[in-house]
Write the structure tokens for this entry.
Amino acid sequence: MDAAWALPESPYDLLGVADDCSTADVKKAYRDMARLFHPDRNTDAKDIETRTAHFLKIKKAYETLQDPGSRKLYDGCLLARERLVRKNLYKYAVSNTPEFRDVVDAQFADAVLDPERDVAGDALVLCCESCGAPSKFRCSICDRLVCAFCQLKQHAFDGIPPHYPAKYTPRYRRQIESDGRLRRLLDHQKEVGDRPWAKSDSDRVSARRRVALLKKKSDGDDRAPLSLTYGWCQTQACVYVAVFVPGLCADDDAVRVALTNNRLSVGPRHGQPIVDQPLSNQAMGALECVVFGSAEVALVRAQKANLGEVWRELFEGDSLLLRDAGDHDQHVWWRDSGEDFREPEPTFGVDVFVPRNCKVEDLEVELTARHLSVKVEGWGVFRRHWAYTCRSDEASWHLLDDDGRRKVRVDCRFRGLPTNGPKTKEPDAVPKDAVKQLFVEDTDDYSTLAVAQVGAWLDVGATFSKEEDLLPAAQKLLKAMRRERPREDRKKPLEPPFSSLDVDLEDVRRWHSRESILREDAWVSSHAPSTKTAASVYEAPLPPPPSISREITTFAWDEQGSTVKLYLSLGQFVDELVSSDVSVRFSSGSVRVRIGDLTFERKLFAPVKPSKCGFKVHEERCCVVVSLRKKRKEEVWPSLVADVNADPCAA
């Protein structure tokens, strides 16, 4: 930095005291310095002029620090000047501009921004965020400072792909928003995939949260945070475990891998292990590790002690096939396509496959707002955590047969689903492709599942799976590995990362399916055969719900312009009405009110705006008033409830 922009000497440095010193320390330091530099005590000194000038600085520093008010003001100004001048962030930002005001603490804002005192000065540097040269304007696409030189080349900030800077004016900003230039850039980023320049501020915050998540210890009841850090798959001879290690580089020596007493430990060379858990099955001590530095993932290959044994979970305490990248369909989920696409809370279905001949008496289903657990006696436990808050009070499950397989089907709704957002025709509607995963454990934010598949595929080739059948992230990783090779070698097969094993392997999927059928046969034979017919499984009564719902049949309503009021009097049903017991669910074509075991649900005569609807509870009168906002304000409602027998084509 040029000397013209340098900070003056600090009063603390002149007196030789710390920033947090007391007033007595300041006074003592001033006396010691005055004995050395006071003109009356050094009349015979040759450099009397220099000493006198330095004494004046010491005196001014003492006057600044001995008064609490002036010292507090200086500390605030020093903080602002350090941020603005030393870091070379601003240019021509006088003390009353918004740029300067943003970096000054609120307690010093009045004093610093006083034009008469001009405490901080008005020669602060506003610089380009790409090269550091003095800036002239902001880019209207990414809102970054740009200099005259950088406006001639492309730049990239905040996850926006490379683009030429555009001058920031309100008119040009509106033009960019109207023609969709920024949207096209972001769509292009999704097509070409992630790039090093496309790291947004939210990505950096997410990375810090990932590191904090790894440091958090998970208890025995909630294994979701731990399961996010690893992924695994298997063949007849080996198990491939991919572990996310923050800050990992492309150096195999940066990872510490150990297998002691069948306990696998993987982590950085200098630091706490990321994964330190006992394996569910026996493994041999020969471990091999490969580092994927770009993904910060360490891939470990462990040989099975029993060749051909199927591992149903990796660590002790895990649920069935938790974080298994082998694409074994233990469960599937879907969205109900029969519902209106404008439904704010659509219905989702989850199928958990169980052994054939499984009866309701063999099941223990736990369905809460946080997780789903299906336990089959003698078979295992399927446990997953919801990615969104489940409405467990409205969820249900039942046992059925489909395509020769028996499964537990769960129907549920969720809160907090991504919607279209404001400024759209249907702000509360959930887009069809908005929900990517229904369970937290199925996400692959750290690419551990993809790396595990890549490691197994490179080791055994098509025996594990065809390349086109791998996860999309795994296929993208393989393409990136080929691009890093010289052009003449890109069509050659990729080299396996591990040493070869003298074992003849069959197709992994065929092997896993055969072993699963044998295990299922063993489970069926171990249970006493039922004397009932196959259809009796469905005739057996399901576990009763927590309470039997009663329907409210009487109501009153009136129309008030664009609003329709619904009145529910509950005095004949409850002795005391509590506001916390009342829940109301709105959709574009129906309304549902639930008070304990009481339920009122009707299909409305005309569409409404769910985001504009509301309700109020009158506890003293045992009454609930529901306010419905019409979607078409001028439409007159002859009745509240839609006529289910009306001909939709009669109009």
The chain is about 25% helix and 25% strand. The mean pLDDT is 76. The longest strand covers residues 283-292. The two ends are 78 Å apart (CA to CA).
